Amino acid sequence: MTTITNIAAYKFASLVDLKPLRERLIRDCKQWGLKGTILLSPEGINLFTAGARPDIDRLLTELRAVPGLETLEVKFSESDHQPFHRMLVKIKREIIAFGVEGIEPALHPAPRIAARELKQWLDEGRPVTLLDTRNDYEVKLGTFRNAKVIGIQHFRNFPDAVRQLPAELKHQPIVTFCTGGIRCEKAAPFMIREGFEQIYQLDGGILKYFEECGAAHYDGECFVFDQRVGVDPTLHETDSAQCHACQTPLTATDQLDTRYVAGKSCPYCYRSTQEQRAAELQQRQEAIRRVISPLPGSQPYDNFRPVKIPETYSGRTLLECLSGLFVHVSPDDWRRHCDEGRMLSPAGLPVGCDHIVKTGERYLQRKPATVEPDVNASIRLLYEDEALIVVHKSAPLPMHPCGRFNRNTLQFILGEVYQPQSPRPAHRLDANTSGVVVLSRTKHIAGLVQPQFERGEIEKVYLARVLGHPPEDQFECQAAISDDSGDLGSRDVVTEGGLSAHTKFRVLKRLDDGTSLLEVVPLTGRTNQIRVHLWYLGWPICGDQAYLPGRILGDTQTHSVESSPLCLLAQRITLTHPLSRRRQTFEADLPDWAESALR
């Protein structure tokens, strides 16, 4: 069996000409078959290297020939395999990242205590605090008996942790320790600067203590930064492993835990499917917060709106096509758009109003310096998996680009959060309606979800607070709804033609203020169906600015964020999951107007 010699060493010294030294070391180490890491810095050297003993000796001879490294001391250990995958030599600002200016171990070191002297102190029971300066995950494998663990995730957190120590410790003897001593070279002088009066650093760290004193006063093993993971007090490799997911060292007992899956999880980072989804939802929710702060449409931008040429306008001028498709805009306005270069051809070039168009061509209308109206974008994620996204849509918030809204829409915001995916809404809610919205994460999933709506297999339940007290506890409406939109996109009930529509209603509570809370089940999905049917029946929804009492149409399509809310909530939806084929129900949180009514 081949024996591999492992060395760990560091020294604070003023080093110069680091680049040629790096090139020479990487060349020689590779030639000698050594592997590991050597860090070079103007403040010194730090290294963990392994290989055959003669080659290790060659490296040490070369290093000790460098001015400042003549007295480089090394800690040796052995293993039956090479613990490193490759050889790296790097130039760093610090050989141990600390981030505090003015700490210079080479010039102003802290007092040291030798391993045997520390053991004697502990044998005698002298009052001393052993301060573990290592990261939490290292401490899990072992530490000195009764040591004070400072509780940090990275050595850069050490200064803040020291400032949280009890004030009385400043007057008591403290011995700092770490794996090989290098961190204490900065930790101990820093503590002295912070006013601690009796600070010592364990010379050579835990590894030197193991070498000279074995396991005395120490429980467990020592974490090392190579493939061995841990060494015991005889400096031999242990059976410990390291979780690749969270980097926590794992004892042999930890590895027997059912939550340990090599390369994936361990008892310290394992999460159930439910816990993982909750964590992912929280991350997505934070991503939404970043996208909407500020609102994406609040900053001026060039908005490009597509215009696709239908067959009826093929061979005619662009002006004739635009005037025919958008009758609410005058021909003079369209001509001015073209003259100002705001109409772009399929090639992306400005085009004149007399340009002849063809079927299927796609032109762009450029709207410069667009600033969109404010919306309520406080979207709440309710559920997410590999197929579906379910949100509680806020209001007012349009579902997709339309009219004055492009970026301040649910679809744009979620597209930013989930890119490169483009979530596809499986159904629609009015801009002023809040509640549950289901989205498909891919086109394939959309093809499995959308037909459920078309076949009437989706169960949808709304809550509505209406003006008045309907006399019947249960009633329904089957009045047809116009296919064509009126002013501001409104719809109306029609006696001939139109689209069939069917809605069922149940009174949940009649309130003293003259309003009623209804449970609403739409059996079809027409635009504004619930609002139009209640308006038609004489029970308009509270807060509706379009469908007013007395069958009067208002002049507002999308509410402002300052408006009173439309009291209509998509409260619950049940569908068959496209992958599991199980029925799933998603529910929205109750808004104040519904919750107060149910008290």
Characterise the protein shown here:
The protein has 599 residues and is of the alpha+beta class. The protein has 4 domains: 4-91, 2-Layer Sandwich (Alpha-Beta Plaits); 112-238, Rhodanese-like domain (Oxidized Rhodanese, domain 1, 3-Layer(aba) Sandwich), CATH 3.40.250.10; 302-370, Structural Genomics Hypothetical 15.5 Kd Protein In mrcA-pckA Intergenic Region, Chain A, CATH 3.10.290; 387-598, Pseudouridine synthase. It contains 15 helices and 31 strands. Strands 20, 21, 22, 23, 24, 25, 26, 27, 30 and 31 form a 10-stranded mixed sheet that branches. A 5-stranded mixed sheet has the order 4-1-3-2-5, with helices on both faces. Strand 2 and strand 3 (44-51) form a beta hairpin. Helix 1 (18-32) packs antiparallel against helix 2 (53-64) and helix 9 (273-291) packs across helix 12. It is elongated, with a radius of gyration of 36 Å. The termini are far apart.
